[in-house]
Amino acid sequence: MSPRGFHGTIVHSLGPSNLIILENALLVLDTDSKIAHLIEDIPKEDVLSTLSSLDVSPPPTPEDVRFLPRGQLLIPGFVDTHNHAPQWAQRGLGQSMHILDWLDRVTFPNEARFRDPAYARRIYASCVDGFLRQGVTTVSYYGSLHAEATNILADTCLAKGQRAFVGKCNMDRNAPDSYRDADAGASLRDTESCIAHVRRIDPSGALLRHVLTPRFAITCSPELLEGLGELAAANPDLPVQTHFNEAAQEMAFTRELFPGFGGSEADLYRHYGLLTTRTILAHCCYMSEHEMEVVRELGCGVAHCPVSNMTVGGGFMAAPVREFLRRGIVKVGLGTDSGGGFSSSILDAMRQALVASNAREVMSEGRDKGLDIGEVFYLATLGGARVCCLDDRIGNFEVGKEFDALVIDANASGVMTMLEDHDSARVIVDKFLLTGDDRNIKEVFVRGRSVKP
Ligand code: GUN
Ligand code: FE
């Protein structure tokens, strides 16, 4: 039985600079695992009388309520806005290479192996388990280019209870024969069959959505980009994702392939109808004034991937997050970009976001202040939910949202900074976010279901 309520220290974000830490808080779920009440300052001994006064039916009994001891926290599940599921099998390899060399030498040969459904089943089971264990309750996944393997990824997320966008990677050029869609038509037909598969296995969209996934302009012919833009227009429920202004090598080749857009990837993707309010742009490391404005006006989301940006790619530069927030571009979340970089942990992405923002502060001579812990917590939760246009359903514990949450245990054995008797709730939060790991993630809930492997 899933709990109907939690009592203790509850932490969530209401905005980039609005980290909320509630002590002695009572969170009550209704029977379909939506948040019915979040009430602060209820002493433990008053929980029973409070429950009986609430208008939830049937009312939860005290046995349905989980009382969190000191050192445990309830926080929203993490949202990973940019993740390559097949790259789960190549993590740690090819570090410090420039992006196009890394794709050719490490990534494409690895992803080509997903033509084998048995291999896909094995790696995707491990991948989804691995992210759930690390508290990632929602992910926007790139699959490989194979329709069958991509359908296996969707099946795996559904069976294991992870909320996910799943995209068949579209790529019909500038990749080896062994790992390339035959042509634009074949790529689009496979995409349509993957869209149909997700709609068939999760008709209400409770957990899953197909995401249109032109890998990036370099691997897509103009016909393919055009076809995907048409699919985006015809299916307003489908998100779109691509890589955007990641690194010098990538940007230079894109300009060569598409000379007509004045060097602007924003204008290129906009031309093909791929910049919508449901579009997730990974990286955005280099943004001209014009591109900032296009992204803001069109309401695209940014997947900030500071770990991979500082490890592979050759840019060694991460997105100007402070500048985005200053301009009111609040649809910014974190991506692990699993495969690129040294870590697939969203906690590490939060830490590296702090580091990258400090570098930006120095580079901007103090104009772009570094991010603080509340801000990176926002990026990993509500910000990510906004990027995925799921903030009406997840991202924090506002009444009416679905219950995607983690129970954090600061006292679990591991390497997290030990607690002291006098630690405030804020200190415990900081210690976990900066030094905790998956050993401190005791339980994971998606839509109220316990899903920790
Ligand atoms: N650009 C196109 N494909 C990829 C990828 O798999 N990883 C990264 N980091 N950038 C890309
Ligand atoms: Fe990526």
UniProtKB/TrEMBL annotation:
It comes from the Eukaryota. This is Guanine deaminase. It comes from Hypoxylon rubiginosum.
